[in-house]
Every structure is written in structure tokens, then in C-alpha cells.
Amino acid sequence: NTDSCTATVRISSSLLALVTNSGPICQGSVLQLNEISGQGTSWSWSSNGEAIFNDPGLQNPEVTNVSDGEEFTVTITLVNGCTGTGTTTAFVLEAPILEAGSEQQFCILEAPRVSDLSATGNGIVRWYEDADSTAELASDTALEDGTLYYGVLEDDNGCISERVEVVVRINMQGCEEIPEADRLGFSPNGDGVNDTFSISWLRNDYPNYRMSVYDRNGSLVYEGNISSPDWDGSADRG
């Protein structure tokens, strides 16, 4: 009799890694990579760009410094040593651009507020008091002369622009025209015309104001607030 034997050969079919990512993402954001086949025991990620992995050996790593169209490839290994690869492409949205100018000038007579700051861009503009603040300034916040304000633009995709720095100037140079009542001065002679000293916008824009008038010798001759009558030129002090 002739001896015989039987051998069984098993050939594993090629393994395809199933890969997804969290895109689209905004420029500068973190991209999450995912290998979801559920068959691998080890993973090795790479890209064809300059992306930075938190750990290329993880099944689902995070990457930063991602470019639009950058491809990410993972090689997975099974317990039996077989390998497979998969690729996914990143979609990165461009950051919006906010244009506001480095300096903005306002009329001191108009009591400018945050809502008066000028900026252009497609989206929602938000203003902050410093470069790192996360507390948005309310639109009715009074602007302060010589102060820096920082604006950002958020577009419809939720992407944020770089912060734009704007310095505010508040003075008479920003006024197109001084109100007629404020240019006439006053003549307290009892003729019924400009007999008292008043500033047309003061009570409305600065309800908590306090006014003091001194003579040439530095002596206080008048002191008043929103509850006081306009000054008629007479001394009520000293």
C-alpha cells in the first residue's frame, strides 16, 4: 500500500480597514480619526501631509495641523498576522476673515457703545475686552477712549476668525457737527435766550453725571447733577 496524507490550507481573504473621520472641521480644529472594522489588534496611522498625531498607534487617534484634502491611511493587523489598510480624506473649512481697521474714531458727544464698532464679514461679530477673554462684551457697553477691543467673526459653519485688534479714539474730532445748542454758549442776562448753561446730550447719555464750575481763582461757584437746574451763571457756592 502507498502511504498518503492530507493537508488543509486556509487562505484568509484580504482585510479592508474601515476608516472614517470627524470632518468637515474648521481650520485649526482637531480631527478625530476612526477605524471601525472591529477586527484589528494593532494600528499604524500615517498621512501624506504635515498633520500631527497624538498617537499614531491608537485605533482612533486625534490629529492637529490638518490641511484640506490631506489623506490619512491606517494599517491594521489581525491576531493571525494578516494586515489590511484603509484611507480617509480630511475636509477642512477655511476660517472667515473679519475686517475692522486698526483704529476707529467716535464723537464724544454721541456716547459710542460696542454696537457702534464697525466690522465687515459674513457671520456674527463678537467683541472682547482682551486678546484671551471668553466673555463677550454686551452691545450696550460704553466704549472707552484709547482702549483696545478685540473682534472675532463666526460664520454659518461655526468657524471662528482670528481676533482683530481695534483701538478706539473718542474725541471732538470724530464729530461731524456740534449740536446748535452747544455751539451758542449762554448769556445769563434774563432775556429768555440762552440764559442757562446746558449740554444737550449730557442728561440723556450720562444720567449719573456731576458738574462742577470754578472761577478763575479756582473757587467752586456751581455744582450740580441730573436733578439740578441748569446753571444760570450765578454763584451758589462761597
Automatic annotation (TrEMBL):
It holds the Pfam family CHU_C. It comes from Poritiphilus flavus. This is T9SS type B sorting domain-containing protein. InterPro entries: T9SS_type_B (IPR026341).
